[in-house]
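Q: Protein A?
A:
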Amino acid sequence: MSLATALYSARPGRERPNSIVHRTRGRRHGPVTRLMSPGDLGEALKPFVFLDLVDTDSKALSGFGLHPHSGIATLTHLFEGNVRYEDTTGASGLLPEGGVEWFKAGHGAWHGGGGGDSARVRAFQLWLALPRKDELGPVESIYLAPAKVARDGPARVLLGTHRAVASSLEAPSSINYLAVSLKAGESWRYQRPADHAVAWLALSKGGLTAPGRIDAGELVIFEVGDTAIDFHADRDSDFVLGSAAPHPHDLVLGYYSVHTSRESLAAGERRIEEVRIRLQREGRL
């Protein structure tokens, strides 16, 4: 039985805890640990299809040159340090600690970056599969300074809502994505919306107890349910948490793209090629 089938084969009653049904430490690739990709956990957790944890000396991030995407949105959040960014909308700069990069590639665009001037970088980059109405839509590039990121207590609301607090970014579907920092001894509760069958957490620092033990470097998936999830930090802890209504489409994969059909993938790849030719003409590739 696949993980996706196991997750959705039964819905527990309201009083049953949200237990952990899967955990992983992903695969290390140089300075990056890939915790989720479209070919593995992304199929069970869609619209969340890709998650990288970066935790490294800034010098190790020599640079992620301009590269293309289509059919997805990426969201990068830094718990520590800063990074350089640029994209084909003309934006460029330095994303600071606590900041957010939102890059909705839509019909096709390029972005890149690398280490900034901090000694260390600790961050997550997430990919979201876009719904059919948005996968070939316009590109959106937004960079939020830390003061512009909505907060509710220890939680930064990167996308969606938490209690009465809403992100300034427009979510493409019913999605919550939070970055949470707890001091040792602190507790925190997350109540996922009733339609959010998908729920997971990735811990970059510290240690938590929830319905089970969670250690730094792990991504855990919670069973389907609508009871609140309680977390307690036994050390200073930083994590991201995502929940969403399931993405109803197949994942049709390109090298840097995720679409809902072969036709939309082909359209995205045509646009990527058009932008590549322009970048080469400008001397940027």
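Q: Protein B?
A:
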Amino acid sequence: MQAEIRARLAGFAAGFATRRILVAGDLMLDEFIWGNVSRISPEAPVPIVDVTGESYYPGGAANVARNLREFTTHVSIMGLTGADAAGDQLLGLLAEAGIDTAAVERDPAFSTIRKTRVIARNQQVVRVDRERKSGVTGPALARAIEQIDRIAPSVDAIIVADYGKGFVTQALADHLCRSASAHGKILTVDPHPHTTLDWSGVTAVKPNRLEAFLAAGMPPSEPVTPVLEDQTLIEVGRRLRRRWQAENLLITLGEHGMLLLADDMLPVHLPTHAKEVFDVSGAGDTAIAVFTLGLAAAASPMEAAELANRASGIAVGKLGTATVTPAELQASLRS
């Protein structure tokens, strides 16, 4: 990469610190149980994990906020938790990170979503999900819309992280689109593939490859390399841009990097910068966070995608739902 391009990208990254971002979506608590495996259970053909430690992190949309918080102190989050111990723990973690939780709704009838991953010798042994899907009630939706109207004028961008757990409904999506348009704000979406929500006119949508095929209603195909010769993937991208009327579509491709389809350019492939891949969990959260920050800092879609691609390459080299620091991103830009 030419020195002047690296310097320009580094300048955008430095500008992240003043950006103000609202994240809306499904909130979760991520629990990691760390241990070692030395024997198989005599009760069943499964490994016995000797636990050495436990750690807890904000998950789902809260992990997007956590990624943003590495780069800017101006992060707000909107979502739903239960009035339970897991909800207390999640809100405590967000408060410790300096993330504004004033727009988080606590519903006694809702159980906070918790995902527990057991990790032994750097490998995930099992994941246990605790969740009870339930839609957002009318009063909760009304309060969420009030929060959007309160916060939207003061932020630079809004990120929607839809994990399909019920918080993001079409009514909420419609209001987010209207509000972002009325106030001239960037609106980016990390969609859930099994919902049919309309995101008409958003700034950008960021599915991964499988999510893109599912959302387009096309059967997933085997990846083709070079990526720009993967005509099926490019057709999926074009269909989704037409469906969502999105200015930009960024499809994350794992070890193959990213594919960007934007208004004024041919499809662009960005090869991955990952040196090693230890854990892909949370890499999509890193991508949407940094891509949105890039757009908010006045980077072009191509420049914002390159920043997101480099940040994702760092994130997958870490275990757990890891975040990327400004120093790590700047070091990647210098390399």
